[in-house]
Amino acid sequence: MAVEPDFEYDLLERLTEARGVPGYEDRVRAIVREELTPHVEDLHTDAMGNVIGTVEGESAYSVVVAAHMDEIGFMVTHVDENGFLAVDPLGGFDPRVLKAQRATVHTRGGDLPGVIGSAPPHTLDEADREKTPKVEDVRIDLGLDAETVEERVSPGDLVTLDQGTEIVGEHVTGKAVDNRVSVLALIEAARRLDSPAVTVHFAATVQEEVGLRGANALGVDLDPDLAIALDTTVANDVPGFEEREYVTRCGEGVAIKLKDSSVITSPKVHRRLAAVAETEGISHQFEVLPAGGTDTAGFQTAAGAKPVGALSIPTRYLHTVTESAHLRDVGATIDLLSAFLDGETGEGDYRL
Fold it and tell me: Residues 208, 252, 287, 344: which is the catalytic one?
């Protein structure tokens, strides 16, 4: 590849290819626990499934670094008389990209392969061709007779979309790049952190895709002095968009969030992030996201007013199975997060 990643690519592949929809992040959680254990002094999982690895600092001042583990998916609601599965979405899908996708149904008896079918175009009339697709119209075909499906599948079983993780040019692409690439950054930063001046909680959170629920709970339970969230963000630097609509550009560095529809980050925090990036020569850009939210908002007010910042990894084709992030931007995110934590003394004043 033209760009050699300065992080453990094999770990990113494991994280992205693991399955974990909101509320059922078990497979991802197991990887996170395994990878964090050697690098933290305390590791625990709370009642919601958030994983928290703590590195004790010289002071009681505490910083939370959070990245969500969950990916968008579905929950089975019904098996029809012909053995096709109706589903309810877990997270936001664009229904236009769901047709002709392969899927896996996760049952108590094991995983079953399936497909989301698409009618051949030459069998559709003009009205069908022009019909706007809806997520509620999705049906999963397991290729089995109805009786067998009834025996093996139950309402509440989970569905994820299938796609391997690949290097495409200088990008990593696949399903669940949102947000496993940030989980990787969290783990890499924990590996690098040595004798911090402040206590750092590395938190892999749950249920972000359905309302920042894990972060909201952790904001109360941990009550940090400062929170930094990690997530992917929109990179519309592709045909069909005007430059003003790009939000971020792939390959131009980590994005320092200024706002999204859920949060306006603390000015003193994002200014310090930018100052560290300038001092360390880390490529960076600024993010103003018109719509969408991240765990940042979950920490800002959950236990009273808190200073918050966020680092985002520019990503094309979000909420599809071909999400695509530039390898250099991933490396820049890890570098800036690590440098920021190394320099945090707890003595700065983030109040406005």
Answer: 208
Contact call for residues 252 and 316 (beta carbons, < 8 A):
no
Per-residue pLDDT tens for 14-34? 999 999 999 999 999 999 999
35 is catalytic: no
Q: Which residue ranges make up the annotated binding site?
A: 68, 178, 209, 231, 319
Token pair of 350, please?
Answer: 């983030």
Report how far residue 218's alpha carbon sits from residue 224's, in angstroms, rounded to the nearest whole number.
9
Q: Which of 211, 190, 210 is nearest to 64 (CA)?
A: 190
pLDDT one-digit tens code per residue, 291-306: 999 999 999 999 899 9
Residues 347, 100: Cα–Cα separation, whole Å: 55
Q: Which residues make up each annotated binding site for Zn(2+)?
A: 68, 178, 209, 231, 319
| Residues 325, 170: Cα–Cα separation, whole Å | 8
Kindly list the structural domains of the chain, giving each domain's residue range(s) and its CATH number in brackets, ordered by start. Answer: 9-71+175-343 (3.40.630.10), 73-161 (2.40.30.40)
* 176 neighbors 320 (Cβ within 8 angstroms): no
Instruction: Count the neighbouring beta carbons within 10 Å of the beta carbon of residue 132.
Output: 7
